């Protein structure tokens, strides 16, 4: 039977003859791991389950779900697309890596948005990752439709290899080609292969929580 090692800092369980050199969860070294027998592990699990109580008063079910979702960490991105001679971009917080080999990501876009229409037609989109001073970009690309307003007017941009417009004053940009999509009700989840990327600045990315805290 393989040995089971528990990180005494975060509780991570490692299975193997020896503890890991580094805990993949909290980063401490092997000296913080202790050998745990199946009996001890079952006891710990039972104690945690039986003794657990929320430390704050709980709201009703629907409010609890909404508040839980607010705690998920999001970035802020400008998703751009081009089709039939029209360019558009929108602010989005749903953009995440799926795999590294191949480089693949997913974005969630509201079906009523003009950007959604352009992505459906072209099968391509761009991602501009905002820095922590990107509030004006988030507002410009997030509060009006591009069907009757040129969001890129007066904004420093360049056109990528795929033809989409990408912002200049951002941390990084990526271009992607859609390989699949999932109907998610009000939104579509686009799965795409990353075909190009640029590193434009050093710095920390804008998060949705940071944007809300100082807007």
Summarize the structure.
With 215 residues, the chain is of the alpha+beta class. The chain is 21% helix and 35% strand.
Low-confidence spans: pLDDT under 50, at least 5 residues? Answer: none
CATH architecture assignment name of the largest domain = Roll
**What global shape is seen?**
elongated
Main beta-sheet strand count, sense and barrel state: 7 strands, antiparallel
And the CATH topology of the largest domain? Pnp Oxidase, Chain A
Share of β-strand residues: 25-35%
Q: How many distinct beta strands? A: 12
Helix content: 10-25%
Counting helices, strands and paired strands, the structural category is: alpha+beta
Protein name: Rubredoxin-like domain-containing protein
Keywords: Oxidoreductase
Cofactor: Fe(3+)
Pfam family, one: RUBY_RBDX
Describe the structure.
The protein is α+β, with helices and mostly antiparallel strands and 215 residues long. The protein folds into two domains: 1-45, Single Sheet (Rubrerythrin, domain 2), CATH 2.20.28; 70-213, Electron Transport, Fmn-binding Protein, Chain A (Pnp Oxidase, Chain A), CATH 2.30.110. 21% of the residues lie in helices and 35% in strands. The chain has a seven-stranded antiparallel sheet with strand order 5-4-8-11-12-7-6. A three-stranded antiparallel sheet has the order 2-1-3. Strand 1 (4-7) and strand 2 form a beta hairpin. It is elongated, with a radius of gyration of 22 Å. It starts with a strand and ends with a helix. The mean pLDDT is 87.
Describe the secondary structure blueprint for this structure.
Elements: E1 4-7, E2 13-15, E3 33-36, H1 38-51, H2 61-70, E4 77-83, E5 86-92, E6 95-99, E7 104-110, H3 114-122, E8 124-129, H4 135-140, E9 157-159, E10 165-167, E11 172-184, E12 187-199, H5 208-214
Antiparallel strand pairs: 1-2, 1-3, 4-5, 4-8, 6-7, 7-12, 8-11, 9-10, 11-12
